Description:
- With 520 residues, this protein is α/β, with parallel strands linked by helices.
- The protein has 3 domains: 2-45, no CATH class; 55-246 and 386-487 and 495-519, Rossmann fold (3-Layer(aba) Sandwich), CATH 3.40.50.1820; 252-379, no CATH class.
- The protein has 15 helices and 16 strands.
- Strands 1, 2, 3, 4, 7, 8, 9, 10, 15 and 16 form a 10-stranded mixed beta sheet that branches.
- A hairpin with a 5-residue loop joins strand 13 (424-425) and strand 14 (431-432).
- The radius of gyration is 26 Å and the shape is globular.
- Residues 1-26 have low confidence and may be disordered.
- It comes from Edaphosphingomonas laterariae.
Amino acid sequence: MRLSACxxxxxxxxxxxxAAAQKADAPKSAADEVEKKVAADxxxxxxxxxxxxxxxxxxxxxxxxxxxxxxxxxxxTLTIRNAAGKPTASIFYTAYTAPASGGKPRPVTFIYNGGPxxxxxxxxxGSFAPVRVRTTDPRAVAPAPFHVDPNPDTxxxxxxxxxxxxxxxxYSRILGDAKPAEFYGVDQDVDAFAKAITRYVIKxxxxxxxxxxxxxxxxxxxxxxxxxQLEDQGxxxxxxxxxxxxxxxxxxxxxFDNIHVGYLPTYAAxxxxxxxxxxxxxxLATFVEQARVxxxxxxxxxxxxxxxxxxxxxxxxxxxxxxxTGLPVDYLKRANLRVDLGRFRKELLRDQRLTVxxxxxxxxxxxxxxxGETPEYDASSTGITGAYISTFQDYLTRELGxxxxxxxxxxxxxxxxxxxxxxxxxxxxxTQNVADVTADLSAAMRxxxxxxxLSLNGxxxxxxxxxxxERDLKHMMLAPELRPNLQFRYYPAGHMVYLNPDALxxxxxxxxxxxxxxxx
Length: 520
């Protein structure tokens, strides 16, 4: 409507000019007048992000392990600029900071979700902040009223936390005449986060404190490249925490069979959970390890032979594959021993007219068409979205008193003009068509031999399967003396590990040890 009004105004201006003025310079002057009118209209009436940085803080308390910890919750913005100093984006964040004790520097962890383009409300309201939304597990959350409770598994006892919304998501917005293409891409996104983190460090005088990155999903892709860029720019990190990782988006370029090998242990964990495994072992970790060995060995070798696989070998591999996946031998042979994710999610519980979730395969859904090829929706996503969005916005306004006329965007995709540039300039200056940031993380760990990396994984995560993560990170080709700096942890949960309250508690304890070990 505003665009139509501006166009009408432009037409009226042009028609009202004297004939003598409607010559070479007239269109330019009329266009200038329209531009001024539009700028004035935007300034007066449109909801825009602030160029001047805004903060809204409140002092609070939370109980962790029987100890009361006072902290400051802050909602605010960081303004990032180009090389000339011109503002290009306003970055929204929420921070939770506590006083340092005993004269020791206090760690600060920068936390973000993935997408790409996702806001960070999922981690902010579900994981380690001092408050979190109460969820049941693994079932769809009931409609409002929702419940936001003090979080006994917050990390505020170990680190300050800064949750950041990527440009175009949440309340983060592009400023002035900057273009979406300047932010929507692997390297563009990393550059924006590097600037935002550096700005926070400068503004809050945190140069001397230990610094960590914690990303989830595509956020781990960001972390791999971001760790290298920050190290290269002189901002040294103490640790990188990878939650539900995907480090290599170029996996399809190295052959489809790698995908099937990477998924197999997750298929096995899912079949185990839903009781589709014959003679089901009591211990999930042991069963998963057996699946790893089979996937890396006989299964990978069989797939590599393609159509030349002997019939006897195909039969033997199909039987073993059936033992791990719970799918019939005949079905597996008809699928050429290669079951795509959508098919597995539909086929495993087809006889019950149920599908399994992608983000968390413990969740089940019901399709209208039980004979279909793939699930109609992801029950592990639809079951929790409303609770997270509603509770976060209520928390911001009711508890922190942060007010804005902007609409909180779950993803930058909601703002339009979202086209992601998947190319990536690796540390060796070669351009990848699709990003594989294991080289960046490996380079960061070599540049900074004290940098420690912790990989956190859900057994039931079919969006970013844990075995693919292992295979990627173990191909960083670290020197023997650096390999202890890379650690892995696993939980009986899906992509959003924190949806499982028991898994969240264990994960929090693992992270507390991670921070404590670094402090020593």
